Amino acid sequence: MIITLKEPEKATNNFDKARELGGGAHGVVYKGILDIDDFINEVAILSQINHRNIVKLFGCCLETEVPLLVYEFITNGTLYSHLHVEAPIALSWKDRLRIAVETARALAYLHSFVSLPIIHRDIKSPNTLLNDNLTVKLSDFGASRHIPVDQTGVDTVVQGTFGYLDPTYYSTGHLTEKSDVYSFGVILIELITRKKPVSYRSAQGYGLARHFVTLVSESNLDHILDPQVIREGGGEVVDIALLAAMCVKFTSEERPTMRQVEMTLESIYAAKEFDSSEVTDEEFDEN
Predict the structure, then answer these.
(1) Mean pLDDT by 10 residues, the chain (287 residues)
(2) Is 122 marked active-site?
């Protein structure tokens, strides 16, 4: 849908600084309320990539020097803002596990279930939005690239965020879907440690992913896990840690696909759901 300039101007009070939500390498984000008719909204929804865990794009305005994109407003901030709070308690372990599943679903969809596979290229917790129900809405596709179906990757100028950035892509400039897998692995590590990938340094000077893999190999996870995760999680925490370590392997060919990651997480989450359900032994026997 093409939107005239007067609509976002009106919605944002002429791009008032007070309406700014944030900004990054690809532009500034404003909050505004658009007057869009219901039938136009339907057209917008039907004409886009449609996945419940990807933020919806309503339209664009081409009347400015830099085109404006109009997205749905996601009400509950970013995964980063929920994890990195001063309080000792953040998101529950069950919510973190579900958020991991939903993010994996979105990425597997982009890699495997659209006509032209899409690599996001900037997967990180600040780009993982959450609505009122803490449902994931993956955002910020400014750096994303289509991959021709007859190719496994493309050579590009390196873009991404240090701490989440695939070292193979960084060193070669060759972008593949495994670059997203690496970044997602860092998010898994972030979910179970509550450490900040961009700024974390171990005593040896290692970044979060490398230090985490070392601790996994030494069976010394308690040294880095979020105490809340240790209290609330069960055996599935180790399963998530092992999966994360596979995702951030230095050699991209050794990493799983996002589809494999999604299926693994789905099974871990389903087992967690079953374990936590109040099913009596008698009911189980009957089933």
Answers:
(1) 83 92 85 65 47 87 79 93 93 96 96 86 95 94 76 84 95 94 98 96 94 95 94 94 97 96 96 67 50
(2) yes
